[in-house]
Amino acid sequence: MSQTWPAIRMTVNGVESALSIPPMKRLLDVLREDLGLTGTKEGCGEGECGSCTVRINGELANSCLVPVLQVEGARIETVEGLSRKGEMHPLQQAFLSCGGAQCGICTPGMLMAATHLLQHNPHPTMAQIREGLSGNLCRCTGFIRIFESVIAATAQTDQVTDAR
Amino acid sequence: MRGDAEAHRMVAPGTLASVLELIAGEPGEWTPIAGGTELMVAHAAGRLPSSKLVSLWGIPELRFIDTRPERLAIGAGSTFTDLRANLRLTNDFSLLARAAAWIGSIANQSRATIGGNLVNGSPAADSSPALLVYDAELELISVRGTRRIAYTDFHTGYKKNVLAPDELLFAIHLPRRFDKHRQYLRKVGTRRAMAISKVALGGTALIESGTVSEVRIAAASVTAFPKRLYGTEDALCGEPIDSGTIAAARAALIAEIVPIDDIRSTSEYRRRVAVNLLQEFLTDLQPSEACR
Questions:
Q1: ipTM
Q2: Which residue in chain A is spatially nearest to B38 when comparing CA positions?
Q3: For chain B, N or C: smaller number of CB within 10 Å?
Q4: Using CA atoms, how far apart are residues B36 and B42, in angstroms rounded to an integer?
Q5: Helix/strand/coil (H, E, C) string of B149-205?
Q6: Are B214 and B206 in contact (CB under 8 A)?
Q7: What is the reported pTM?
């Protein structure tokens, strides 16, 4: 079916775009196919696993469950927006150092959920980390190294936030 | 089979009035979609029957929590994140706040709305038992005006409700008269987080002079839709909480629930757990030895 769709505007990682796409297209597919941002992964495709987690206007969301029309005018953050000037975000560095990533499918979602958690609570307890990441499933690490990565990042985040 | 995005029309009129006009013009043609945590799952599986969707996401008139001395009003478009962040709600209606925290992950809670939870009408709806034992009223709206009904009269069958084709759920009203009630809510699922309930049971009860003067009990996942359990309530009302009353209430509960076997559990397991949850609630109501 070829059809002209009205343009949908959004800002992804600070870059504005206007795309003529079907309004029911999943935000996940728009990010990957139309914007080439393949960092965001599809896991279950039904909101259970958190692999496709992004932030929309500062709120966590599973991008597989968001019809793109509902992000008209919204500010979206994906894993590609975490690094600054080629430098990894402290969470990315911590995941690398602590073995928080193995196969990598859950990692972008874990990073976004952890970013969201630390932004609201810079020094979370282990229980708060577990709750903050409870919507993100990992089938490799057994989670402990992911939790340790988040803890390791908190110290670094303080330094980076001070420096920025 | 994956759903086809191009097979669906979707519009976002942006205001409540324009949505109501749209659905009044073609009653039953448009399926409202709020946070999408239910309908987008159906869409992904190619099971979304409607070809025309109207977005309720971001409509400001539907997203509010209004605190009054005598009641709390929750806009149907409020997300479970909104509910958890509202201190009046978490203080005064703690069962609802607890249910909000059960609903999926943080990413689900920030999209899923309380109105969507009720209109979707799952027998396992997480917010329903709390709303039922708090005597919730629902305010429905259409171009014809608004009407209020008791939440107990909303669901009429499995995934069926009383909404007219041109109506939306507008708000949930909670009367503020439960501060002296003992309150209970527990959900049993496959695991503690991120699981759909096998059984959930809620209760509010007022104990005066050693007997039950008021009691409300409701359950999810043991009937075709979340329900008040009036037979069980009748077995308790006016009675002291002793072993005889508890036995009668357990028997009444078994008589009025109709759990089924499905992918999440069995009818027998659900029956036993429901009775155990009731027992837990009632045991908590018993006067403790220390107070005698």
A1: 0.91
A2: A65
A3: C
A4: 9
A5: EEHHHCEEECCEECCCCCCEEEEEEEECCCCCCEEEEEEECCCCCCCCCCEEEEEEE
A6: yes
A7: 0.93
pLDDT single digits (tens) A43-84 = 999 999 999 999 999 999 999 999 999 999 999 999 999 999
Sorting pLDDT into bands at 50, 70 and 90, what band is B26? very high
Q: CA B237 to CA B243: how far, in whole Å?
A: 15
**Domains in chain A with CATH codes:** 7-81 (3.10.20.30), 90-163 (1.10.150.120)
- Name the A residues in 122-151 with CB < 8 Å from any B CB: 131-132, 134-136
Residues in A closer than 8 angstroms to B10, CB to CB, are: 23-24, 67, 69
Tell me which of B47-51, B96-100, B180-184, B286-290 is least confident.
B286-290
Structural domains of chain B, with CATH? 1-179 (3.30.465.10), 182-287 (3.30.390.50)
Query: Closest by alpha carbon to A64, among B117, B35, B196?
Result: B35
The rounded distance, in Å, linking the Cα atoms of A97 and A139 is 19
- Among the ranges given (A56-70, A150-164, B245-259), the one the predictor scored with the smallest mean pLDDT: A150-164
